[in-house]
Amino acid sequence: MKTVLCPDAHDLLLVIDVQNDFCAGGALAIPSADAVVAPINRLAQCFAHIVLTQDWRPADHWNFADNHPGRRPFDTIHLAYGAQALWPSHCVQGSRGADFHPGLRLSRAELILRKGYRSGIDSYSAFYENDRSTPTGLSGYLKERGIRRLFLAGLATDYCVLYSALDARRERFQAVLLEEACRGLDIEGSVAKALQAMRGAGIDIWQTA
């Protein structure tokens, strides 16, 4: 069922990682990722507050398979904080792949939060690094601004959007997933599992179009 979107001054649109490397032709392209751009642009017109996250990785990042001789993308290694998937090199600082999708029309965004810049820790969530204890500072920023509810959109549903939504609840924000404005990698049913996890955490899942 479609939901009418009527955000107020305490609501914020959080747009996750809509960057060239996650879109068509990118180093870690997500199926149909470009399809999120139009709904995000449309939905953004309803919000007074917008924040973007930007994956921003050094070339020597430990989660790049290229930095582990003999390893391939999607292999798993073990770091101090636990198991870590390896990925193709992507969203390297200053590269075209790290740029936002050129079709985004979000010049009113109040903050661009860069994540993944610590070479030894991967970073999915907008709130915490993958060690689950190193904060990005986003929670404090939002609370000081009086934001109470987050509407999440972007890439990928089953990774960075999922972790950001769960951490939003961990930080006691209300959270809503705008499903038509997200796409996922969907590895062995991972999108369905992500949606189930979000519902279980009290995250609303809306279709607005």
Would you write up a description of this structure?
This protein is 18% helix and 22% strand. A 6-stranded parallel β-sheet has the order 5-2-1-6-7-8, sandwiched between helices. The protein has a two-stranded antiparallel ribbon with strand order 3-4. It has helices at residues 37-44, 138-144, 160-170, 190-200, and strands at residues 11-16, 50-55, 76-79, 82-85, 111-115, 149-155, 174-183, 204-206. The chain is globular and about 50 Å long. It has 4 helices and 8 strands; from the N terminus they run E-H-E-E-E-E-H-E-H-E-H-E. The protein has a single domain, classed as Rossmann fold. It is an alpha/beta fold. The longest helix has 11 residues, at 160-170.
Q: Can you describe this structure in just a few lines?
A:
The chain is of the alpha/beta class and 209 residues long.
Instruction: Kindly report the CATH topology.
Output: Rossmann fold
State mean pLDDT (0 to 100 scale): 96
Series of secondary-structure elements, N-terminal to C-terminal: EHEEEEHEHEHE
The second-level CATH architecture is 3-Layer(aba) Sandwich
Distance between the termini: 9 Å
Shape: globular
The count of DSSP E runs of length 2 or more, i.e. the number of strands, is: 8
Provide the low-confidence segments as ranges: none
Counted by DSSP, the helix tally is 4
Q: Estimate the helix proportion, in percent.
A: 10-25%
Which class of secondary structure composition applies to the elements? alpha/beta
% residues in beta strands:
15-25%
Number of domains: 1
CATH superfamily: Isochorismatase-like
Rg value: 16 Å
InterPro entries: Isochorismatase-like_dom, Isochorismatase-like_sf, Isochorismatase_Nicotinamidase
GO molecular function: metal ion binding; nicotinamidase activity
Pathway: Cofactor biosynthesis; nicotinate biosynthesis; nicotinate from nicotinamide: step 1/1
Organism: Pseudomonas indica
